[in-house]
Amino acid sequence: VKILQLVGNLDLRGTQAVEQNVLKLCEGYRPQLLLDLSATDMVVSLGIRLLLQAIKTASAHGGRVLLLNPSPAVSTALEFSGLAPFIARGKESEVAAGMAKRES
Fold first, then answer.
1. How distant, in Å, are the alpha carbons of 7, 19, 66, 80 from that of 4?
2. What CA–CA distance (Å, rounded) separates 51 from 35?
């Protein structure tokens, strides 16, 4: 399981800064990516598009992406966007262990 913490905002600038890295982590054989959103303050439509693209790319390769511990504001935006099934809450190590267990 790969873990990436996104810090700041997933606005135009923030999304452009992380897009290539996030999507690269979603390629390969059965990628398992945990995106830690606990330090992400805001997400706009472009950021939601990136998260959705990451989820779809990983799924197409037999993998999975989970969005860890988003703030209440970010969580609301994700839920309104239909991404609630991909939100995980809890300790990073426990969620990652659960993802790894599911993979085997």
1. 10, 12, 11, 23
2. 9
